[in-house]
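Students often ask why we bother predicting the structure of a whole assembly rather than each chain alone. The short answer is interfaces. A chain on its own may look different once its partners are present, and contacts between molecules only exist in the joint model. In this exercise we take two input lines together and write out one structure for the complete complex. Read the inputs first and try to guess which parts will touch.
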Amino acid sequence: MAEVSIRKAVKSYEAGVQAVKSIDLEIADREFVVLVVPSGCGKSTTLRMVAGLEDITGGEIWIGGDLVNDIPPRDRDIAMVFQNYALYPHMSVFDNMAFGLKLRRFPREEIRKRVDEAARILDITALLGRKPRALSGGQRQRVAMGRAIVRHPKVFLFDEPLSNLDAQLRVQMRTEIKKVHQSVRTTTVYVTHDQVEAMTLADRVVVMNQGRIEQVGPPQMLYHHPATRFVAGFIGSPAMNFLPCRLERMGACLGVRLSETVLLAVPASRTARYEPCLGRPMVLGLRPEHLTDPREPARPDAARLDVAVDVVEPMGMETLVHFVIGATPACARVDPATPAVPGGVLALHADMGQMHLIEDAAGSVV
Amino acid sequence: MAEEQSVIATMKRGQAAGLLVLFLGPAIAVYTLFSIWPLIATIRLSSYASQQDGTLLFAGLSNFVTVLTDPGWRGPFLNALGNNVVFFLIHMAVQNPIGIALAALLSLPQPALRATYRTLIFLPTMLSVVIVGFAWNLILSPLWGVASGLLKAVGLGMLFHPWLGLESTALPTLALISVWQFVGITMMLIYAALLNIPEELVDAARVDGLSHFRIFLHVKLPLILPTIGLVSILTFVANFNAFDLIYSVKGALAGPNFATDILGTLFYRTFFGNQLQLGSPTMGATVATLMFLVILVGVMAYLFLIQRRMQRYSF
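Now the answer. The structure tokens for the assembled complex follow.
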């Protein structure tokens, strides 16, 4: 059990490529932090730096109050779960889990006890005698987690552990991981490119982009109050609509001008906040779930919007409607009963209470 | 797969057979012509005895009885067989550990000049055995060799002996020359097997708490056992078929006093004759057949006793 702090950590490679550019992150004891990184952005580098598998070029990494920059992985008291499970193919499941303990010269009964306990938590007791190749992907993943659990390490590191599983198993294992964390309460750092995993698992989500931290916060905060256009677009599925716009005065309030004909009223409470942006090119961010059918009774901040429907995608519990505003494609999530037909006109309500106003050039949310 | 099967299933019998001949025929023809037929011809020849007038007479197993019991044959044969076993054991004890160690060093994360070392160590393998034999003859020569000078230069002059000329050391010296030449092959095969082990597995072992040496011992070594087995059996076959190095360094008489005589050189003298000894194709074929049987028994033992228990791992 320990806190992890990453202070001004930098990783650069010989070719002058900076994979990680000065990261600061404080992770509290028992916290579950998910680093969510879009594919191909030095995804695992940060995690491998914490593990000690990768040297850091600059900055400091502290685990449980110790500076670990120059400490090899085996002395950092961490356990890691890998993307491809990395089970020792020549050892049984029991030996895979017991190996780290045997090396540390734990007494035999203690090893037995810990492995049995972990196997019980993960429901793999029946598999202890098998070799990894006789296991399915999900079972291998459980064993890999078991190998981490038995060590009772200070920190768990997960490197995209679910990306090799099929969709159904992924959802199931996601729940398992959360359950395991709730029962062992070990500080956890988890790397993924899947924002759904990040949202569902994390106490706090760290969104990284191009080797920098874009925003850190609890999942709900990232969803409702993204700090940048990148976070706004990355969290949530389908992604937030970004519509180029200008602010105009509408009497005492402000309005968002999307096109010649479309002007949406901004809630009065935000007038002071948005006033400095008058006249500059801005981007309106509005999630598909906040572009819905007209409801009775109408919400106070709802603005009516008529759109020409391009594509209708029924999902069962909801229907996605794609259309174009100005020249920008956008998407709305409407009730399945809504009579939307391609080519037809659909009346939508934009919930302007949920709008985000983004600086077009800087990408920061006002 | 299912589609391919159905294509064959729809063929007429003759057509399918024609396909088989087309695909397997060339390989079988070449293999039969150059391997199976000479082997059978040799075994057949070993069961004949040549008469004074040069004609061959069927003699059953009497040639084998002669080689294994006749005092004039039994001694040289057992001497050659024993030397061959020593030759092989020295290879196993020296070539494989060194080859494995070199491969392990090469596969560490950060050795500089990796490619240079790899090439240098592999270089002797590409040299002709005649050149290797000649070069080592010069190096170790007590008259003009550099070995004694080098040893003297570092104050170890008293360690020098004419290793190739002493009965007690000639065979081990030749075996070590052979090891020097072929350790590159062992290294390359094992290196390739080591590269096949996923990086993630090594990372996992590092996190589990193993040093590089123990990762090698507990994780990598068990995973490359099949390759080590393969290298061993290749060494076995090559050693019991060896001839060229001994011949180029010591000549057909494999001196001193037959101390370096192995089955290959014994066969050569028997078949082609040497100095006062007349060549005898039938007795030569008998020795060759015995060599074949020794190798056959060794390879079979390996296949049935060891290979079967070994597991190959896919990652």
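Check your guess against this: Chain B has a mean pLDDT of 89.
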